[in-house]
Amino acid sequence: MAPLFITAVAMLLGCGPHEPAEQPAGKPVASVTVSTTGNNFINVEVKLIHATTVWLLALPEDDQAPEAEDVKSSGSAFEAGPGTLNGLKPSTSYMLYYCPESDKGVLGSVSKVTFRTVAAEPYAWEKSRTDIPFFADLALIYGGGYRTPKNWDKSRIGTHVTWIDPKTKEEMWLFDAFLMLEMRTPDNSDPHALTLGIKDWYDSSLPMKSANKADAEAWLDYWFMDDNGFIALDSAIGDAVTRLGPPPTTRKVIVMMPDIPIHERYNVLESSTTYWGAVDGRTLDFSNPADRISAYCWFVDEVRERFDKAEFQNIELGGFYIMSEELPSMRSGVGGHGGDTIDGQMCDGWEVKAKAWDDVFPAVSNYIHLYKEAVVWIPYRCAAGYRYWKDFGIDYAYMQPNRFWDTNNVNPMASFFNSIATYKLNMELEFDDRLMRNPVDASDSSYKEGEDYNTYRSRWREYIDGMQNAEVYGNKQLAVYMGYDSFNHLRSSTDYEEKALFNEFCRLIANDPLKANNR
């Protein structure tokens, strides 16, 4: 198989300076940049001053740092220009040590740069792809955390697979993609946040501790559990295939990547940077951006490996979801609402340094793209990054209108449709039990007694009519937020108007012209 390549961003590889600094005559200096990385090699660019050679030695990151003589005696010699260092292990984090040598045999100082090799090769189902998977209608499915009911068995998740039109009695395929995600770990004495912004149970002035590697593994265990999640979805689609024949395209699953911030309490800069766990036997320290990337790449590989072992017949891994709903950066005046001021510069978004997503993406996106997997993101309305989402390596970005809960009337749909047209964003639809006269989730504290369901139905109508008038329907991908289980609550309703709302919605999803693209 041809070797795999990934274009290296500076933060992905922890690259050193691009130009070697001028030094007193005679002292050798080198600059080494890792330009691409494969499964068992790296390509480098070498620049030299007062040197004819640079010695390169790649060691696992937890190995003891070598002296200059060690680099020369155990390393490989390179001249100025491009070169390739072979003999590395796949999916391994390395420290590349380099030491220049003059024509008189004088050794310079040892410098270093971090990098990570990619996995050995794509799985067969990834190699068969010619492009990033496409899907028209994406259902958001929350699970694996604190919610009730806990599981997504076949009967519960299967309702999202097909729908019978009451007018024609025809059974039709419904959603062609499913996004599995969650906000925090299950209730216990020390729950952890899978996404930023959740408050600590015991001190609301603090953010909740971020999820670690064990939390990520437990969350994946939930979705791969028997008679639940992916297995249940695969089985439900298989049952439908026996009735309808194969769907036009294989149903895709998108898996969230839990947020991995620098600090355990993401904006408490005194909190731990080594809270997450180990990769390749080495405890990661997120004060080093490359270690955050290593953690994300570990998660991507873990999901891919589990999907390969599961050998699903009716679903395939379609990509990964960026959980943070804003991607702030040091860009000035780009975002919808401004943000922090750092060194007199107005940034796009809030707590830019604490989140530091620029250190992670597009590096992780590039890694995901090696395997022809999609990168998906759904920002809140005008969230930081919504104008330059492609710069993060995102394939499919949807924006939330946030009109459904707009009690202060600050989120008009007209400006929303203008924004997604201008910045080539897709659309998220939003509803929950507030569409119902008697919400099933009425005990949830977010539902306020006396709220008028007609108000929410009116806003929902703005979504449905607006997306058709703005020619979004049939031309842009749709993602659908449906509370925790409001799709099934509405489906089971005996209220005539609620049943009509449900069937109208399903008819739009089932007949979405964008599905005909079959890309």
Describe the structure.
The two termini are 26 Å apart. The protein is 25% helix and 20% strand. The longest helix has 22 residues, at 289-310. α7 packs parallel to α9 (363-369). The protein has helices at residues 10-13, 68-74, 124-127, 154-157, 213-223, 229-244, 289-310, 352-355, 363-369, 413-422, 453-469, 486-492, 496-510; strands at residues 29-37, 42-49, 53-60, 76-78, 81-85, 93-101, 111-116, 137-142, 162-164, 171-173, 177-181, 251-257, 278-279, 282-283, 315-322, 341-342, 345-346, 374-377, 396-399, 426-430, 478-481. With 519 residues, it is α/β, with parallel strands linked by helices. The strands form six sheets. The chain has an eight-stranded parallel beta barrel with strand order 8-11-12-15-18-19-20-21, surrounded by four helices. Strands 4-3-6-7 form a four-stranded antiparallel beta sheet, with helices on one face. A three-stranded antiparallel beta sheet has the order 1-2-5, with no helix packed on it. A hairpin with a 4-residue loop joins β1 (29-37) and β2. The protein has two domains: 10-116, Immunoglobulin-like (Sandwich); 135-517, Alpha-Beta Barrel (TIM Barrel). It has 13 helices and 21 strands.
